[in-house]
Amino acid sequence: AELLFCVPVAEAAARDYDKAVAYLEAMLRQQVDAAVGKELTAEAFEEYAAYHDRLVFRSDFRPGPFSYAVRRDRDAFPDGTVSIASAAKKEPIRTFARDATETTSPFTFAIGAATFVTFDGPRYAHAYVA
Question: What is the DSSP letter of 88?
Answer without folding.
Answer: T
